[in-house]
Amino acid sequence: MSQQKKSNALWYVTAAAAGGVGYYLYTAGGNPKIAEKNFESDLSKASAKVKSEIPGHAKEAQKDAEKWATVAGSKVDSAVDKARIEAAKVEQYGKDAKNDALKKIDAADRKIEAEASKAKSGISSWFGGK
Predict the structure, then answer these.
(1) Residue 108 located in a structural domain
(2) How many domains does the chain have?
(3) Which one-letter DSSP state was computed for residue 76?
(4) Which of 9, 24, 52, 71 has CB 3.0 to 4.6 Å from 35, enough for a Cys bridge?
(5) Which of 34, 16, 14 is nearest to 24 (CA)?
(6) Separation CA 24–CA 35 (nearest Å)
(7) Would 2 be classed as within a structural domain?
């Protein structure tokens, strides 16, 4: 049986969107609010250019530009939310690892102290102590 050839259009659109989000976050120094404002500014410039080139379709172009700005803004917000969730997971993992290490250290200290106490009482008994 032969497999049908899959269209890569969805992959290209997704890669382009991710690249666009990455570009604006990178140029904004990682600040999502600034990235969103830069995107809206660029979108506004593009909208103005389209308006000047297509006189009869200005309102339609503006609506499309606003729609794209909304979509891009929600994607940036989504990316930021995912990054915050992952950062919280990493922080929690670090806290858990620290707590686990402290518990193991405490257990080792108790064991060492118990063994030292046994050894001390054993040596004391040689010299007539308790």
Answers:
(1) no
(2) 1
(3) H
(4) 24
(5) 34
(6) 5
(7) no
pTM: 0.35
Handedness of CA 44, 47, 51, 53 (dihedral sign): positive
Tell me the C-alpha distance between 104 and 111, whole Å.
11
Residue 102 maps to a domain: no
Q: Taking Cα atoms as reference points, which of 11, 34, 8 lies closest to residue 23?
A: 34
Chain centroid offset of residue 112 CA: 42
Q: Residue 56: helix, strand or coil by DSSP? A: helix
**Looking at this protein, which amino acid is placed at residue 81?**
D
CA dihedral over 117, 121, 122, 124, signed as positive or negative: positive
* Helices (H), ranges, the chain: 9-27, 32-53, 58-126
